[in-house]
């Protein structure tokens, strides 16, 4: 009834996974999606992300989780720490 | 003279375009009131001569970093006739919002799509004429590194007339800058334009460079590669070749064989006053000591280091190293970004202290400055120290172990004790590139020139001070005073002279020890204790001044006093432990 189930870090999702919005820090390597929104208690962190062009609506792929988070947007790659990765929320594509 | 300003994010080739436009001649100077360097040069287009300004990298007009503030004030205060916004063609969609922002502010922009060849290789085509129509401004596609398309760009500069102005909301407005909605609108607009003018042939194959990049960024493979880079780049090339072979050649052959005997003969022939003879060619003479240390010992070491560093820098390895060490660096209160000044510190800590500006919080800058001053030996010093301890791996390990221990403990303690926000790490990982020899050589050369301009006068001055000190007897008084702390370390009185030199330059001090070793005065235990103390010891005069300039007089002096006491305490402790356990190295 629920279709396939997906395992993701500490979560189990069944059914309509494409709608799932997760923080970049929760994604698996090679997961891709569209940035849904940025959220952080610390507005400075949001400024930093926006200034390098991390903005809602843009496609993003997680390439590496450790020792730092590495993601690609278009043909650029960025490395960020866990705190910043926790501020980027991604709508995962199938 | 009318001005052309070059702006854009880091890593898009602004400086390469600057060189292509101006030839290589540039005047690099600090932007008034700041410590950010801006290059200026001249170019002739048609009959008109322009001043070209290469601005520091900026991701946005919103001025988070000092570099961005400078780039912004060049735009607002210097009224350039044309602003060349350089972007990486393959990242058009992400970089176009800054173009739109500049246009909204009424800046006279020509858009320059650089690295067109890479975009093409990735299967991307860009309709430049269409882009010109959409934006209402001239657009030029170039490959700055080969010069392709630069003539077309020159033409467009010649024919430039201001184009249309976009408004998502009027003008630069400080309070509106981080308005989420405006930034989003701009990005939407950019995405829309990018869709219209680009087409991709999807090429899914991951290139060799991408594989190599992953290998470098994987801790399991990246760690060993880092050790290889350090071993071959630092130890083999700088240590063995620079500090070993080249120093030996220049010092023993060139100086001892030709320069010194010639200078001594010449001076004795023309100068008949004994004191002046001493000043020029005496034991601590300007030529026999000052120039010899500067050219025969320091120059080859620093030159080989800067050469190796430029290759590592241009290949794009450093950001990958930064992401590898970030988690570990957080424990000592730094972000991964700090790895760049710290590695540069192995070349010249003074220059590295200046580079701590790229760190984003004051707390990080202070911690990095302290670690550079205390526990990172510069290449000159390290070269001499490795030469001193050569052939005794146990002695080298004891020295290395103590220095690493101090680095970690002091880093950890300062990060615990110092208030301020925790550092955050974000950095672009540029594609790996094969370093261009011409660029590497230019960088190496300009850094060596900087180094010499900064330190050569100090060498001469140090020789002069020692001469004055000797004549007046002050030198002897200082040496006498220093003999007390030196004897607490279990070292012979003569080392006090090396320590006094250490005040002028750390490497001067190390080179002083070198002379003592050659005379066979020091045991291995004593050498190790002396090397440890001297590594940790007060920074050279140049670095002391730089610390004060960058961190302010209170912090700068405070740090130096701490380091003075700390280095002798550690030296004392090591000697005490060696004696206590009866260890003979």
UniProtKB/TrEMBL annotation, chain A:
What this protein is called in its record is Ferrous iron transporter FeoA-like domain-containing protein
Q: Name one Pfam family in it.
A: FeoA
InterPro entries, per the entry: Fe-transptr_FeoA-like (IPR007167), FeoA_core_dom (IPR038157), Transcriptional_repressor_C (IPR008988)
Which intervals hold domain Ferrous iron transporter FeoA-like?
A: 22-92
Keywords in alphabetical order, please. Answer: Iron
Q: Superkingdom of the source?
A: Bacteria
Asked if the record carries the keyword Iron, the reply is: yes
Against SUPFAM superfamilies, the record matches this protein to: C-terminal domain of transcriptional repressors
Keyword Plastid applies: no
MF terms in GO? transition metal ion binding
């Amino acid at each position: 009834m629920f279709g396939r189930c997906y395992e993701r870090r500490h979560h189990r999702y069944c059914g309509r996974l494409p709608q799932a919005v997760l923080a970049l820090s929760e994604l698996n390597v090679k997961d891709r999606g569209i940035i849904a929104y940025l959220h952080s208690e610390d507005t400075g962190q949001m400024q930093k992300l926006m200034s390098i062009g991390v903005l809602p609506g843009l496609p993003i792929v997680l390439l590496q989780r450790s020792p730092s988070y590495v993601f690609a947007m278009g043909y650029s790659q960025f490395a960020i720490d866990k705190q910043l990765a926790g501020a980027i929320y991604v709508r995962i594509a199938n | 003279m009318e001005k052309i300003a070059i702006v854009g994010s880091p890593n898009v080739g602004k400086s390469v375009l600057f060189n292509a436009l101006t030839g290589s001649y540039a005047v690099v100077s600090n932007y008034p009131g700041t410590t950010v360097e801006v290059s200026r040069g001249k170019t002739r287009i048609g009959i008109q001569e322009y001043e070209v300004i290469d601005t520091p990298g900026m991701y946005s007009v919103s001025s988070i970093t000092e570099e961005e503030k400078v780039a912004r004030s060049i735009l607002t205060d210097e009224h350039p006739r044309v602003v060349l916004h350089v972007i990486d063609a393959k990242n058009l969609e992400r970089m176009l919002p800054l173009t739109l922002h500049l246009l909204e502010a009424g800046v006279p922009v020509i858009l320059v799509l650089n690295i067109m060849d890479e975009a093409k290789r990735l299967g991307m085509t860009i309709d430049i004429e269409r882009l010109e129509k959409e934006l209402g401004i001239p657009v030029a596609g170039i490959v700055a590194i080969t010069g392709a398309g630069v003539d077309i760009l020159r033409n467009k500069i010649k024919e430039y007339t201001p184009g249309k102005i976009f408004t998502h909301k009027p003008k630069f407005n400080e309070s509106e800058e981080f308005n989420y909605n405006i930034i989003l609108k701009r990005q939407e607009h950019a995405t829309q334009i990018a869709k219209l003018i680009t087409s991709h042939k999807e090429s899914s194959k991951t290139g060799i460079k991408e594989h190599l990049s992953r290998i470098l960024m994987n801790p399991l493979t990246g760690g060993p590669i880092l050790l290889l880079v350090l071993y071959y780049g630092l130890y083999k090339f700088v240590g063995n070749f620079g500090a070993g072979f080249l120093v030996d050649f220049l010092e023993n052959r060139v100086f001892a064989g030709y320069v010194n005997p010639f200078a001594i003969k010449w001076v004795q022939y023309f100068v008949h006053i004994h004191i002046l003879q001493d000043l020029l060619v005496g034991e601590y003479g300007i030529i026999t000591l000052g120039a010899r240390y500067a050219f025969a010992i320091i120059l080859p070491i620093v030159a080989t280091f800067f050469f190796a560093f430029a290759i590592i820098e241009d290949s794009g390895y450093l950001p990958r190293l930064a992401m590898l060490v970030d988690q570990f660096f957080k424990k000592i209160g730094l972000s991964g970004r700090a790895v760049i000044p710290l590695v540069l510190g192995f070349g010249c800590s003074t220059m590295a202290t200046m580079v701590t500006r790229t760190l984003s919080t004051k707390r990080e800058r202070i911690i990095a400055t302290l670690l550079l001053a205390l526990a990172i030996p510069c290449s000159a010093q390290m070269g001499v120290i490795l030469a001193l301890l050569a052939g005794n791996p146990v002695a080298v390990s004891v020295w290395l172990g103590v220095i690493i221990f101090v680095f970690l403990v002091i880093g950890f303690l300062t990060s615990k004790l110092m208030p301020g926000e925790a550092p955050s790490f974000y950095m672009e990982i540029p594609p790996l590139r094969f370093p261009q020899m011409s660029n590497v050589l230019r960088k190496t050369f300009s850094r060596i020139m900087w180094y010499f301009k900064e330190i050569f006068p100090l060498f001469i001055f140090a020789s002069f001070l020692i001469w004055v000190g000797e004549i007046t007897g002050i030198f002897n008084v200082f040496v006498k005073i220093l003999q007390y702390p030196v004897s607490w370390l279990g070292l012979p009185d003569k080392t006090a002279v090396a320590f006094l030199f250490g005040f002028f330059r750390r490497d001067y001090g190390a080179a002083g020890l070198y002379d003592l070793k050659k005379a066979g005065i020091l045991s291995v235990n004593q050498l190790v204790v002396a090397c440890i103390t001297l590594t940790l010891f007060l920074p050279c005069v140049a670095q002391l001044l730089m610390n004060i300039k960058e961190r302010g007089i209170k912090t700068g002096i405070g740090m130096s006093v701490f380091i003075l006491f700390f280095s002798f305490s550690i030296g004392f402790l090591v000697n005490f432990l060696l004696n206590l356990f009866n260890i003979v190295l």
